[in-house]
Amino acid sequence: MDEGNANNSTNGTVTYPGVAPVKSQYLTTKDTFHEHLNNERKKDLTLPDSLDEEVTDDALKHESKKVKIDQSGKDTNESEKSNVELCQSKDNCKQSKRKARGQNKNRPHMKPNQYEHDQKLCSSVFREPPGECYYGEKCRFLHDVSKYLALKPADLGDHCYLYDTYGRCQYGISCRYAQSHIGPDNNNLINEDLMKIWETKVMVKNTLSKELQHILRKKKFSFPKSEQYLKRLSVKQKSGKQDSLEESESGKQHHSEQKPDSTKVITGMAVEINSAVSVSSAVMKENCLASNDNVIPHLLNTFTCPGSKLEENTTPSSGIDAAVAGSVNDDKQISSTKRLGVVTDEDIIKLRPYEKKQLNFRDKLYLAPLTTCGNLPFRRICKQFGADITCGEMAVCTNLLQGQSSEWALLKRHHTEDIFGVQLEGAFPDTMTKCAELLNQTIDVDFVDINVGCPIDLVYQKGAGCGLMNRVTKLEQIVKGMNSVLDVPVTAKLRTGIQEKVNIAHKLIPSLRNCGLSMVTLHGRSREQRYSKLADWDYIDHCAQLAKPMLLFGNGDILSYEDANRARATTAVSGVMVARGALIKPWIFTEIKEQRHWDISSKERFEILQNYSNYGLEHWGSDTQGVEKCRRFLLEWLSFLCRYIPVGLMEHVPQKINERPPYYLGRDYLETLMSSQNACDWIKISEMLLGPVPPNFTFVPKHKANSYK
Predict the structure, then answer these.
(1) 482, 464, 374: which is closest to 420 by C-alpha?
(2) Dihedrals φ, ψ of 456, to 5°?
(3) For domain 358-598, is the CATH number 3.20.20.70?
(4) Rounded (5°) CA angle 144-149-151
(5) pLDDT digits over 318-329, tens only?
């Protein structure tokens, strides 16, 4: 427990600044806490020696760098030595504080696909029906089933979630729960009754088909609307530069005593006429092509349930044919379904801004786009607890345009997500506009969000994320461009500003509203502030007043229904977005809707983790690679879940998001285990759900806790 001036609380309980108030009968010391867990733990877990210091309780903080002292001057007197020691202690203190911020960038990290190495079975062997390997003798994976079974680790359980739910496991013999659905001849068993229930249902949308990926990699995808907008933008920029040059020349001529030469006047007139003609021709071209803007039908890539045999063959590709007609002559033709019937107005007439699909977001609960932890399995958990609006993780527009599978995986949408959007990160109008048009033709979303709030250096230094707040012209061009090519609303998520005490969001919001933005979400902190101080809801209220009639959602420090009620009652926001609060307690959406503090038991919390693990196996796979990927994301989430303090243990509710949990013993062993901030205990929880970790397993969380400082 932190040392400092104690504040008196009710019932004689002593609390400390920045520490959550827990009832005295549950409080304990650090040594007693870990001793209790060690005594109850059936199996001791140790990580490699290189991580011993990083996973101790203070934990997960890298050892501060040692300050080198010049040893050459051995004749220094005692006063000089004391000054050196004092400086050294100050430097170490500053560096330790600096190390407790941001991310664990130098953490040891092993990708899930590296746990099998050359022991992985080739997919051509276990897929149904089995086929020839595309790589032949050059394939680096195993084709001998008996050899693979001899090297394969022991199964993790007796029941496969995919087989028990959908009637078929697509991973066959490579599944880590294969004994539940593998016959005597190593054939994959199928439950016909369950398959009939699910095979016609589309479980996950927005997958990347091989045909579309091939076209994107070959740069054969056409962007008619984007090219149209970018041409208009370039003409406008050229005319603007010409006008500025003419103004400078006219100023020089005005101050000169000589009369203007007639040739110069004629040249200036010719330039004006040419620029006017170019602008008018661009406008005429836009009007002529307007009737063709909506000819491209939507391509809705879909993914059927894991039990369906038509898993990879149910993706319509009519949108690709229209988008790349005439540009993929050398490639094989992609099968498409032709549109039948009479031509309607929607096929010819371009939509006006107010005719676009409108969404009623007011007073809905919005789950924030959360990098790393905001994956599809986590969003399914939040939907079950009452989240109304969900958004995918931040996706880099250039990676999407290149057809990277890992980036397109962030766009997947589960069928339970009724209001779903994707968030794009980019720095320039051309790539963002083209990416928006690509998504408009290929995936099914209800809105597209622009990331104007990402604070990390990698994004900020290239002008994206928070960097766009200093590049207002580019930001406006991005909003206008994306709005011109999308049939769904465009939103944006911003911070208050870059510097801690210099707010600039109020200057941007009116101009973004005039550019056609449908909604803004404002996080009440600056880029430099990160999470070290409370969100500024007074400033959020001021910006909400300026944004009217555009919707503005507030974000920051929502951890209870009382926080949400206070934000709605004291500000003019249209709704609240929940971010870290959902990571710490995903049932916060139920608490807000039912207006109560839920004293959830450890058993119920463990069932949430079980559901997450099952959804993870469905999303990432039940083979070794999928299991370890699911484990890694589960551990990242547990680094937030451990901050939750049960309601029954609190001296008074609600828990504040900036208050650090003290050491306490829960009402049972599982509740105590879930409160541990030691990575070894998180790994123990993952082993209770996903079986033992591989021999060379290591884990250090991506994010450091800076909210309690």
Answers:
(1) 374
(2) -65, 150
(3) yes
(4) 100
(5) 444 444 343 434
